[in-house]
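Trying the structure run again after the queue cleared.
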Amino acid sequence: MKAGTAAWWQARYAALVRQRPRAGGLELRRITQVALRIVDGEGLAALTMRRVAEEMGVRHTSLYRHVASRDELLVELVDHVLGEVVPPETGGGWRAELEQAAWEFRRVLLAHPAIVPLLTMGQLLGPNALRGREIGLGLLIRAGWEPSRAVRIYLTVAHFVIGAALLGTGGAARGAEERKAMTELFAGLPQYPLVRELAEPLNLPDGDQEFRFGLTALLDGIGDPR
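Done. Tokens:
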């Protein structure tokens, strides 16, 4: 059974219900905390079951009671990171709450750039991911959105944030130097007159500006519940 699929998560939840904690034993949260520290500091390539065990001062076979493989550890690691997302403050209206949630989701993802590609590795169905769905759907339905419409809005905004984070990290990320280089490249391509003419504005916005514009346009298009 592939780690991260709906069937895997179903079996995972059932196993966790049956699992009894051992006094002084390892906890999944502690394992994922150590794994995240390794990934944040050295990248995904440095993460192995043996390395996590060494950092924790235990035998690597001790980890298998909680995660059966590196792939399972990666799936749990993604959900661990999603647990850092702080729910939006209530009372400001559905749009303000959804905007706050989107910005907070993006903040957490950009804080852990090596984790971002893993969001497409499997389904986001861990307890922290489902908590986020519950909160997002709840704020929309309370605002008066019809449930099926609320689902579409939630998924659209969540996928926008993930897509923006994927483009904002890794090889697609554009820092100041890359934007300058792209501007110079565009300016020197007469065969693409519009790209050449708009070389500077094409590379002027930073990631925050692009995200703000996109999120605003998206929510403007959604409108209000009727």
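The radius of gyration is 21 Å. Worth checking whether this holds up in the mutant runs.
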